[in-house]
């Protein structure tokens, strides 16, 4: 996937940022919980072609917080 293209693409629904998932070949909008497919290195940025991501998938995208340090 072209890095320049990734920098300018936004969600067509909310105009928010997208998360590139290389292994899944998808661009994910966390705000709308939509995953847009990438076919033959071309992102398909159509709402009708996107799939709704599950809550588990959404949670996996959230930044990992460090575990709290126990007081001694």
Helix content: 10-25%
Radius of gyration: 15 Å
Note the main sheet. Answer: 5 strands, antiparallel
Q: How far is the N terminus from the C terminus?
A: 48 Å
Low-pLDDT residue intervals, each spanning 5 or more residues: none
Count the beta strands: 5
* Structural class category: alpha+beta
What global shape is seen? globular
Which short descriptors sum up this protein?
72 residues, alpha+beta, 5-stranded antiparallel β-sheet, 18% helix
Provide an overview of this structure:
The protein has 72 residues and is α+β, with helices and mostly antiparallel strands. The protein has 2 helices and 5 strands, in the order αβββββα. It has helices spanning 3-8, 55-61, and strands at 19-21, 26-29, 34-39, 42-43, 51-52. Strands 1, 2, 3, 4 and 5 form a 5-stranded antiparallel sheet that branches. A hairpin with a 4-residue loop joins strand 1 and strand 2. It is globular. The relative contact order is 0.18. The mean pLDDT is 87.
């Amino acid at each position: 996937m072209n890095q320049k293209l990734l920098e300018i693409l936004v969600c067509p629904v909310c105009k928010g940022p997208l998360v590139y998932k290389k292994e899944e070949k998808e661009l994910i909008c966390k705000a709308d919980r939509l995953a847009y497919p990438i076919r033959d290195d071309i992102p398909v940025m159509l709402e009708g072609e996107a799939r709704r991501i599950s809550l588990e998938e959404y949670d996996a995208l959230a930044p990992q917080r460090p575990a709290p340090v126990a007081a001694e």
